[in-house]
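Continuing from yesterday's entry. The apo prediction looked reasonable, so today I'm repeating it with zinc ion included to see how the binding region is handled. Same sequence as before; SMILES copied from the compound registry.
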Amino acid sequence: MTEQPIREALDAAGRVPSEQDLDTLSRQLNRPVRDVVEIGARCVCGNPLVATTAPRLSSGIPFPTTYYLTHPVITSAVSRLEAAGLMNEMNERLGEDSALAAAYTAAHEAYLANRDAIGERSGTGAVPEIAGVSAGGMPTRVKCLHVLVGHSLAAGEGVNPLGDEALAGIAQWWTKDKCYCVGAWDTDSAVPSQDRSRHVKTQEKAEDPEVKRAARAAKRAAREAAQQAGEQD
Ligand SMILES: [Zn+2]
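Holo prediction written out below.
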């Protein structure tokens, strides 16, 4: 479909998410992760930096944002760049610098090519609803630096010029040659899991008879009130 060569930071074995990876992602995000099919990038220690989501969720919903930055040290560093106004500055440069604009368009195409490959590998297949739609504002705008940095980490340097720039911009807080994982997320309490939400649902069901009883009582009271009102007329 596209002539872009696929560039990915991790090899096939490195991309496979282990149970431990999924637990780490849930801890990093403090919520259970769903529909993660691969790991897009890893810390030198092996921990995930980027979660790769299939282009179609198991619920059937098309999902254009393939790479999600999960490492708290990186996400907060990138948020600092956003807060400092880097996106506005990048958008201005995209309007003036045609070489940068062309490289950014190529990054958009590379993103789509990677997503197609991930869709094939994960069994999702083609997702026509989001054909040509990437993420983060690509190909002409910068709307989310986290998306661009996630792409840069998953594709490797030299694919997304603005993602690479943002990565260089967070060097005082995070660099790819060092591990910043210790203390970056809660490793003591239970892994945020979907079991917990099932448990909550079970509790809600257990309360159902009570709720129904209360509703019946309210209806009865309303009926009686209406009858009394009728008698007064
Ligand atoms: Zn690490």
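Comparison notes:
- Confidence is low (pLDDT under 50) at residues 196-208.
- Residues 194-232 form the longest helix (39 residues).
Will overlay with the apo model tomorrow.
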